[in-house]
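Hello forum,

I keep getting stuck at the same step: I have a sequence, I want structure tokens, and every attempt I make locally crashes halfway through. Rather than fight my setup again tonight, could one of you with a working pipeline run this one for me? It's a single chain of 83 residues.
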Amino acid sequence: MGIPIDGPARVLCDNMSVVHNTTAPESVLKKKSNAIAYHFVQENVTMGVIKIAYEPSETNLADALTKVQSAPVRQNLMRSILY
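Reply #2:
Ran it on my machine without issues. Output:
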């Protein structure tokens, strides 16, 4: 986007399979449609341009806007967003 950043960009996911597949060099995908983007991400992880990390659903702020949750979980996430 043309905005310089210091260090690698952090990408957080709540799916351990995605974290493992993008950070393990021996991992491969079988679907060609996914393979192009997958290899691009894996190359950038290897070069240190991005870092992929796990974010549990209980603390994933995006889940408050995209998933159905129990009231206590939703309230905790909304408190994190508002404060």
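DSSP finds four helices and two strands in the chain. If your local run keeps crashing, start a new thread with the error log.
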